[in-house]
TrEMBL record:
The chain crosses the membrane at residues 53-70. This is Protein kish. It is found in: Golgi apparatus membrane. The lineage of its organism: Eukaryota, Fungi, Dikarya, Basidiomycota, Agaricomycotina. It comes from the Eukaryota. GO terms for cellular component: Golgi membrane. The keyword Transport does not apply. Belongs to the KISH family. It is a single-pass type I membrane protein.
Length: 71
């Protein structure tokens, strides 16, 4: 089933994108910072969300991992 039709899979894809963009921005900031507008701006926004809301993103990742392990 596609991640668009399964809500849990959609949340997992969004969390992975946020975590990946935050990590890439920490390692190579110019790679993310040069694309602040357009479609690639989604990666910049995801990195910002990961930086500013990192405790909440971490809790969401842990809760997603627990729900995947329980299933």
């Amino acid at each position: 089933m596609s991640a668009l039709f399964n809500f849990q899979s959609l949340l997992l894809v969004i969390l992975l994108m946020i975590c990946t963009c935050t990590y890439v921005r920490a390692v190579a900031p110019r790679l993310i910072d040069r694309n602040k507008e357009g479609f690639l701006g989604l990666f910049w926004m995801s990195a910002r969300i990961g930086e500013r809301l990192s405790p909440y993103v971490a809790l969401a990742c842990i809760s997603m991992a627990v729900t995947l392990l329980i299933q």
